[in-house]
Amino acid sequence: MGYRKVIAGIGSICFLLLWCTISYGADIPAIRDAKDSAERDRVQALINGAMKENVLDWTGNMIEPKHADHIIPGFKEYYGLSNSKLIIPMA
Hints:
A two-stranded parallel ribbon has the order 1-2. It has one domain. The protein contains four helices and two strands; from the N terminus they run H-H-H-E-H-E. By secondary structure, the chain is mainly α. Helix 4 links the parallel strand 1 (55-57) and strand 2. The protein has helices at residues 2-26, 29-32, 37-53, 68-79, and strands at residues 55-57, 85-87. The protein is elongated, with a radius of gyration of 19 Å.
């Protein structure tokens, strides 16, 4: 009887983790739009790293820093980085 409860508990935890991962990924267009699982994993790893840093550093050669106000909101939404701070160095 105890063995079945342990297996059921582990199965429930695995299901919950899988469900949360799938629903989280579905909310981020960059992950949802990836063509295959390897690309989704690659993009997810990059997004996880960016979330840990929690900072977006605006550096550009052709696009001026003043344009960040128009570009960054869409970038944050597409990659699910809405809580990240933006740093714009002034030249």
